[in-house]
């Protein structure tokens, strides 16, 4: 990741007598949330060939500048999901005095994190902030805006903040999950005199802008204990709550990003949505926009019927396939015999010294990218609850004859073959794209994981080739892995498990899966 010191000349001018009023730019949404040191947060998602932007209007009202008649803003960008590696934000201003970037890093935090942190002196006018991504990565992000040097989150920079930074000089703060440590003002992973100097330049700065609040719950007549679980016979309920009086409140039924319903908060801030409930988990998103343009969002999931419990299943392939199916992806649709494709229940290799069978997967990676995989459907009959989100943990036992530390065409026969495991809401299957069979879910590529399958490790078996040897015997290996993404069951209570290998070794790979155990743990909404 890079740390940039280059500053566009258009961004070198500073301004006086500042106030921040928050206004949306284009069709984007500015989200203000409580907690931390930020007075505003913008959330969104960066996809391939897309860009977002939002605007902070700088004027005279409600904002007090710091020393020298200027204000320093700290703008941090972090990933909220997906594989996004956020970069530093792009800044621009239409005001006569513009914006000057004082410090920027896209590897902010202790140990070289992935957050981006920018400290900028801003002048009167519309400040435009555009999130960026490193290396073409995509995913959700949150961009937070705070006063540089506001350590305790009271929306001002005073001597107590300076004392907190000074007492921390010389230490390397740990990085909390929400943002880089506020005492590390410039986000370089260490508290230094530079951080104190930035805060000192902002001494006296304050803002009267406050994050808006939003509360929401299930109608107490249906959910008296507030656990968001209602009885099986409750086919319709109400979502009730409070926002700023006069706010426009919108409801997303299903949590898919489409807001289908709109109402206005009353004089006391109250609002209500009547909603139908399907059996299982029903996700909702509520977003409230106040009269001043600020927006706050909350998500909740309502369970109709018994709440989900953990689901544990174990499959020993000595007992047969047990519902698992095999397939191959990332190879030509008309792959010929030279690919040596083979799959199915087979006797285990003699050198393992055990009787029984395993699920064999074999391919010769002539496409330099073969993914061979097993998949199995879990249903409501297995205990999966419709609409529930789960964390998935695997214990995988397999036999491999791929030596450790060996050389091979395109990559090592062991270390260049990634073992992956995960799950998806839709059935993994191959689809034809430009003459190749590709997987319809995101399993990543080679040593990189995806939302449907993350990297467990590789298939190197720990034995090295000795002088004159061309192969090593099979060895049984056991790997435990928690999938890096959660999986949501579909409306019928179905989800699909996925286990396979993604090869960068351009030779023959043959492994035997001996057993796969999986535990699904419900994720609280």
Based on the model shown, name its key terms.
6-stranded antiparallel beta sheet; 525 residues; 35 strands; disordered N terminus
Distance between the termini: 33 Å
If you compute it from the alpha carbons, what radius of gyration comes out, rounded to the nearest whole angstrom?
Answer: 27 Å
Shape field: globular
Please give the count of helices: 2
Number of strands: 35
Overall pLDDT confidence: 86
Percent of residues in helices comes to under 10%
Mind summarizing the main beta sheet? 7 strands, antiparallel
Low-confidence stretches: 1-35, 175-179
How much β-strand is present in the residues?
A: 35-45%
Structural class: mainly beta
Describe the structure in brief.
With 525 residues, the protein is mostly beta strands. It is built from 2 helices and 35 strands.
